Amino acid sequence: xxxxxxxxxxxxxxxxxxxxxxxxxxxxxxxxxxxxxxxxxxxxxxxxxxxxxxxxxxxxxxxxxxxxxxxxxxxxxxxxxxxxxxxxxxxxxxxxxxxxxxxxxxxxxxxxxxxxxxxxxxxxxxxxxxxxxxxxxxxx
Length: 140
What we know:
47% of the residues lie in helices and 10% in strands. By secondary structure, it is mainly α. The longest helix is centred in the middle third of the chain and has 51 residues, at 22-72. The relative contact order is 0.12.
């Protein structure tokens, strides 16, 4: 009978032994810190990829708006501006709003006539280059 009672007492912890030790808690905190660092570094490249994707989408949308404008207004000869594309004149608006330049890239139009209007993409503080497709926004 005493053996059973001793085995029962050996399996139970006293009030002092309930909970985690300081070492156990520190190990858990260090492991969580390592996991958090891995996640942060893994997500680091996602923001630049999303910026490139947004640049491509905005530039392609503006390019499509210019093409649509020229298709619907073949006799328009003046240079196309962002105001022409976002305004309500001449069958517009062709764009709901001009893309914001606060995203790390800027989109503009250049050309002296409607026929020579091109979409320009400037990434960061770099010089503007003609948008020719998805590779135009790499490096954003």
